[in-house]
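Before relying on records like the one below, remember that each one covers exactly one chain. Contacts with other chains, cofactors or solvent are not represented anywhere in the record.
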Amino acid sequence: MEQLYALLKDKLEDKLVDSAIEYGELTIHVKPKHLLDVACILVSDDALAFDLLIDVCGIDYLNYGVAEWETGGTGFSRGVQARGAEHFTFDQPIADNHYDGSRFAAVYHFLSLDNNQRLRMIVACEDNDFPVINSVVDIWPSANWFEREAFDLYGIMFQGHPDLRRILTDYGFVGHPFRKDFPLVGHVEMRYDEDKQRVLYEPVTVEPRVLVPRVIREQQPTIKGED
């Protein structure tokens, strides 16, 4: 991994924004304008040969690193208290401690079959209101459905994609459900109307709420039976 790290720094030069080895994994950060150039190098250079794109997913850095809940205790005695309604809103600020204020990013995971090496690449979108980056479908055809998924769930536009449309939600779905400011109950609810004999979309009737995250339970003692 150290050799791959040095090789990438030499091959990509100023195209790298940042790179690091953490948790036994190598991650590089690339600017959107260099995405296609870097992609061509990754797949065509024999020393790299990242010919397999495993996944493309989105990230929303809205309020990155800020926790909504204060906790006390562990296991089943763990208490959870919200910091207050004034802390949680659906209009959170963009974290200023990550990617120069970029809210959205696409994450690519690669595998080199020839060299038996893995790589993660993160490309941050420059426009928070209309996140756009280039599609890599022409380089890795497997990106087709992956990019559609990131578009559907995060609203990231992939310029040059041959058929960019929703893939997991309904075509009439409002919003992008993996964005952090998307309400947990959604914007609308759906039901079938017997009289009209069609599906109707209506304003959601459930109150917005915040789920309790990261519940940690202590391991309970095992009760052993008699021999």
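The chain has two domains: 2-61+98-167, 65-94+183-219.
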